[in-house]
Structures
1.
Amino acid sequence: MPRVLTEERPSELNMTPMIDVVFQLLIFFMLTMRFKDVEGKLLTTLPKDKGQQAADPLPPELREIRVILCAGGDTRSHEQNREAHEEAAKDPAVCRVRVGPVDCGELSMTDRDAAKAERNRERYREIGLRAREAHDMLPSTRDPLRRTPVILDADSEVPYEHVIGIINALKEQELEAIEFAANPRLDKHFKGK
Amino acid sequence: MAVEPEEPEGFNMTPMIDVTFQLIIFFMLVTDMAQREMEELRLPRAARAVKERFADESLLVVNVRADGSVYIQGRPYFAPPAPGRRPDARRLQEVFAARRQMKIYQEVPGEPTHVRYPLLIRADRSAPWQWVQMIMMIAAKEGGVTRVQMGAMQEEGR
């Protein structure tokens, strides 16, 4: 008797909406779970009570390790005349790195390019090793209380990823005292305000 | 022929309404997240980046987009100047100066020399370094900030 069966139907519990809701909730939680735990932070400190510092009597290669990052691939002009170098137009796609006097090659912008990213990562590692070497050769490192800072001197146009990559490499080499060189152009703009 | 009487039962709207509601809630939450402090940025990768266990209430999150414009809580605070023009960071300076005056953030209450809240700078991987530098400069000078965290993605594997 098919008639009786069809009349009884509406009294049954309809599971479809509940399943829909559950699926939606499942998808929602799956999606929200993902973007929370991939992000991390690198901790750095800004100098307290210090503006631009007076020169130390020691020669620069003995009192600091300087990592120079130049957009456009010319580290010489950076050193000779910092301000003129900053004013010149540069291409941020290629950056040149130097650790003290040692040239560490070029870094390129990685825009979804895995091969470039891998090459950059090798460079970062090399920069870290060079900085470690320079640090170990310094006379002051024998005194564990006096850590020689690594000064990161990057151009205005250098992409942020290179700076982070180098900080990361320095931290991997246990060089935790990282300082950022001031930007002469910005200094000029914001002085006296 | 015997099955035919079942068909004119009427279209059941309940599942569709459920789905629609869920979608609405989903999009509301997602847009709310985008509106809040964390902008959608392509952060650089760093294996040494650390995860913070609990969120700090006093944390100030500053986002820098790829072009160098700065956003706090979804609102623009700084736009990079046209070539040759001076950057105008008055709004950013005001934010840090105002925070410095708040007693809850002062290292020694009543003395706005140094502040205690952490600052998180999240910048896009292709953002020019100078704008991050500018934020750090203003934070130190106007805001008395000493601790800066730099946002990065943790690398998958090594």
Note: The longest strand of chain A covers residues 39-45.
2.
Amino acid sequence: MTIQIDEPGLQHQRVPPWRNVTFLKWAAQVIFLAGILAVFWILGSQAGDNLEQRGISVSFDFLADPPGIALAEGIDVRPDTGGRALYTGIVNMLRVSVAGIFAATILGIIIGIARLSSNWIVNKVATVYIEIIRNIPLLVQIIAWGVIITTVPGNLELDSGPIGCALAEPGCEAWLVVSNKGASFAWFFPGDGFWQWLTFLMIGTGVSVWVYRWRMRLKEELGDETYALTWGTLTVVVFAAIGWFVHPIMGFLGYLWGWMADLFDALPVWTVQTALALLAVFFAGMWIKGFLDDRRTPAGLAKLTDDDIFRIGSAAAAGLAGVLLFFSFAGISDWILNSGRDLFSVMDSKFEFLEGGSPLALSRPSIAQPGNFPNYGPTGLTMTKLFFPVFVGVTIYTAAFIAEVVRGGILAISKGQSEAGLALGLRRNQLLRFIILPQAFRIILPPMGNQYLNLAKNTSLGIAVAYPEVVAVGQTLYNQTGATIPIVLLWMLFYVSVSLFISAIVNWYNRRVALVER
Amino acid sequence: MEPDMNPGKVVLPDDEFAPESPPLSPSMWMRENLFSNKVNVVLTFTALSIIAFAVRNMVAWIFAPNRGWEAVATNLRLLMVQSYPAGPEPAIPDQFARIWLSVGIVVVLATLSLAAWRVGSRVAATSFFKTVRTGGAVLALFAFLGPPTQDYAFLGGVDIPVVGVLFRLLGSLVTFLVEATLMTGGRLVVFAIGAAIAVAGHLASQATKARGEELSFHSLFIPAGAGALVILALWVVPIGHYFFVEGAKGFEPGTIAASTKVPWTLIALAGVVAYFLGRVVVKFLGEKLLKFVLGLGWGLALPVIVLLIIRDPDFNPERDGGGIDFLTGTDVTIWLIFGVVGSVVIGFLSLPKLGEAGRAIAGLLMIGSLAMWAFPMLMRARLIGFLFALFAIGAQTFAGDSRARARYVGLWLAMATLLVFFLGAINAPGSVEVPGKSILGGLLLTFVLALTSILLSFPIGLVMALGRTSTMPIFRVISTMYIELVRGIPFITILIFFDLILVLFLPGNSEFDSVTLAILGGTLFSAAYLAENVRGGLQAIPKGQYEAAKAMGLSTLQLTVFIILPQALRAVIPSLVGQTIAIFKDTSLVAIIGLFDFLFIADKVIPAQTIFLGIKLENIVFIAGVYWIFTFSFSRASLRLEKKVGLGER
């Protein structure tokens, strides 16, 4: 925004910088940025002095050193490096988050719909649930569940288990056991060839979408009932059934993944660096080009204001900073190469079963006594007494919020929509499927994504019941090694990545759903 | 009760104008609401069995003979204020009157506000008594539903045989029911209370029915009556505490009741008196004055209670050594320089004829105030200097005629005075001795943390929201980065960061109280969420408002302060209350970093006491109830507020 002066003689005289609003605004911003950078620099150098004085290291060496800690549960309870310990914590956190997201979604939708029920007592039960759960701090609830599971009656005993038969006998397996050691229940576990079978399932899903659309098109053309949903579901079932027996033929994918892993291994670092730098330059250039295109009129390029020049300059500077970043820190490119190779190697190892095997195997809980006290055996899906409070706590808490989101989304659809649908002769379930839910879903989705994010972050409260997720493991680690600053940085990096990942998915889906609207 | 409202009319809150539906008979109601079709029948029985299961287990748990409710009863003071000195035992002078005074101030302010904002409406006596009847019946039913348990004294002072005799007088039918279910002890008491309430409610509703809906009373009588009942209980029931002597648990009746009944009675009386005083003031002087005074009172309540009443700062710490006196010390000098001289400067800078020169001088003052950070001097002087420079910059923008100028200068003088005084109070050492490390603890700490964080985060969040919606890219990117970073990471990592790491970044051997650090973390955390709430309000403002304001010739700052923010903030009041509730719940996380808040005491301190070793779930359930009462009433109040300002009706 420049100041326009109408007197003809002054028209082309430039406004002096100290009265030029654009210049002042940019000057203020640049000074502010410089100020912030200066404050960070001062704090950083101060931290360096302080750390030296106290003899605390800020290096990331602890990631490769033996941590000297044992974890209560996870993929690696006696990790040999600090990095491995943190990785175990991350896997634990993701485990409880994903399980919690599934369970909370189902419970939340049930309660949200119950809240809208015309049945008085169901409605009241849902209301009481929501009003009680969401008004009590989650940490209090998690601690309460932690106490409850350890005081649950029915201790594990080898001779008289909760299911009647003596669990110590080799053949005795239960469906569901709850005790002060946690809960364990029967579950399907992936067996040999699971991933090859999953490939079949994914192809089947893709085909079934196509089949569904085809049947729907036919229905619109002919006006007859074409059972599109049944056809779609049957397609998936057929693919799953075929895949169950012939999944070994997907083994060829393993060679493909192995070849990709070799490729990532062979690429020199500078290729990735160059590619990334080119990408930075490309994006900056595209932004500038788009910006200039906006200013292009039939009469030629519009005169660029000071503000425009500052903006273009900033974009160019950002692109240049990207190039410098990628060339001065080869570690970034190296990391990309390594993780790409590792990913494809892991995928390679999952696809090497050429003999037929059962992709899913039912496994029922059993009891074992390795030391003095009986505990759950390796079979069955076991929620330990540490996992249980975190999982149940975040699930029940988030479900209350999801229920409100679902209820709000359905209530937001105006009554006229239902009335119009009914007037067209739709049945109740058709009304819900074709009119209400597609519209409600669009409203529900963004807040739902927010709730998933909250759930993922809230699993960090597992530290209060000693569940070894990433924060708790980090705390144990810095108590051992003193590396507080690196660990807090790693936490932040991890959680910000998770947040960005979830919000990226939600945004992507949101954009897809929103496109249908107009 | 309400002289200016139509006294005869009964105002029903929601469906004022809805046609009255004819009352259904119970069987018709059930057929319509519970058994309308096959699915509903199944759902009803499922829900009923869920309720029966939950209630049965809850009742069994609550009244189990080995429940340690006495842990909560004995440790009430610890839960509320941790180790604030109360009584002769710990060889530290009794300062508990300060706590009662603080509670009294809050209660008086609250009742005055009720009077000023005319909260409440008329409630028909019949419908109220019907609700009482239902409540009593549900209570009795819950007690009745529990499985039979052993005899158990649930309140220390209640003598079970006496209650039993009273109970038998109620009639043979009830006695039969009691014997049939072996209901004894605490369950019996609760059942008796519930049944008595139900019977009394029924009789009262029958008695008032004849008078129709004409018989009504003010709805504030309900909370007032409930409070009166609780206080009456303190006078009647000898609630006491447990102790541990020579390996055996002993009970001393009446101790807790004796130490609390007089203060609570006085506070309640003060509240009632304040309410009627407020009504008189509203009637004769108008509500505007009272609302202004109350706004000021609520604004000052938190710093006054925390800094002055609870801490009791000693402004003359070195009296004996011939040191600095408050009046002759640095504080007064700072006040004279910034308050008095500063007022003159700001008055001069706001002269309209000064124009651009005023801004230039203000800019120089800002540079000077920033330069103060480079030289060693009192932190208080730096902070006030910065605020002064901000006021100087705003002088040309906000000052018009002489009245506006006077108001602006007055505002600065008030701000400077308050800031100097409270910074002086923070700086002065507290004179209340406590056995523990921090003077704040328990529920008091929870409240102080939540309120301070939300109040301090408000200006930061506002600036961040403006930055995020700004057209200036660097401000926008910085605000966005801050907001998204903080919203992306869990609160506990922020708390750990402030608790452990912040000190490493600060010069010298800076020492911070861990409560201060937690407040700092809470402030910066809630600022990011608050910014998003305010942004929602900012984006709801139609573009025409900006254009109209620009057309009027307002500058960007004037436009923001006078046109945009008042509308935006009004639109986000409900979400701000929601944010306050969230912060109140989130303060429980400080228990993880070892602050002695409400949760920590229940979770770690009481279960470690020799006499109540391992008693944990009872404490947790109790504090969950307390948290619930506060958050639930906040959210209900917020709903009412939403309705009152007419939001959500567009």
Note: The mean pLDDT of chain B is 81.
